[in-house]
Design a protein that fits this description.
The protein has 311 residues and is of the alpha/beta class. It folds into two domains: 5-125 and 286-310, 2-Layer Sandwich (Nucleotidyltransferase, domain 5), CATH 3.30.420; 135-280, 2-Layer Sandwich (Nucleotidyltransferase, domain 5). It has helices at residues 44-59, 101-109, 122-133, 184-187, 190-201, 208-213, 219-243, 258-271, 286-293, 298-304, and strands at residues 5-11, 15-22, 27-28, 34-37, 67-74, 78-79, 84-85, 116-121, 141-147, 151-157, 160-161, 178-179, 182-183, 247-251, 277-280. Strands 1, 2, 3, 4, 5 and 8 form a six-stranded mixed sheet that branches. A five-stranded mixed sheet has the order 11-10-9-14-15. The protein is globular and about 55 Å long.
Length: 311
Amino acid sequence: MDKNIAIGTDIGGSHISCAAIDLVTGKIIKDTLTGRSVDNQAAADVIIDTWSQAISEILAKVPVGKVKGIGFAMPGPFDYVKGICYIRGVAKYESLYGLNITDAISHNLGIKDGILIRYMNDASAFAVGEAWAGSASGFNRSLSITLGTGFGSAFISNRIPIVDGPEVPKMGCIYHLPFRDGIADDYFSTRGLLSRYKKLTGKELNGVKELAALASSEKVVIDLFTDFGDNAGLFLAPWLKKFKAEILVIGGNISHAFNLFGDVFENKLRTENCSCEVTLSKLKEDAALLGSAYLLDDDFWKSVQHALPLM
């Protein structure tokens, strides 16, 4: 493979992470991982310039002639085929609404036709990365979830995100499904955990790490995580069984507190007659980088294109 390098790029709510990935080995090339903080309220040209600076730093570290392209793991709403951002109504990246990111990045970097730019939903990129080179790499069918600011998910078969059909929910994700008196994203997220803690104690915390640290001194925290694990098992079991998932991969900030809810969660799955294997993400933050870079693999690209408009 003459061009065996892809730049994997993960666009977070307030940061960009990127790295050069060897498409043959599925590994990050040494010393190329970098990142930048991003002012998500800034003007479009400022945001694009910050992204471009991070990518430029990577391109300076590898032979440009071997770079096949740049893959972006992008939050939605986004046109993953045309590269146009449609984020609106949330407190991030609204200045990018309607902007063709491919044109903007290409202009900033001086990219010519020789370097491709491709996109995929960020949760799907995480799941693809785990299926390609992470915890799900030895399995055919997997569900990967990220428990963090939001509740990300993607169903994967043969490394391809499954986004429609009778085996998966609409859009191939589960954050929007009804749960209790809201949707799953309201409950299985940092926001949900901290909100329930505040309701019970009247105290505000900054994150799940701070909440987990209180487990040794506050029974209410143990009860919160027990309830979280029990309900996560109840919620996920039907979809794991319907999809015939062989493994569930868990990532995101809440996964770092797995010791507080993992046993309850796995016991609930067994109670619901779900025999799916459960594991934590091996790649963690690198999973989305690898998944986005994998967009530059020719066989994968041919197989995944049909799913992009539905993400």
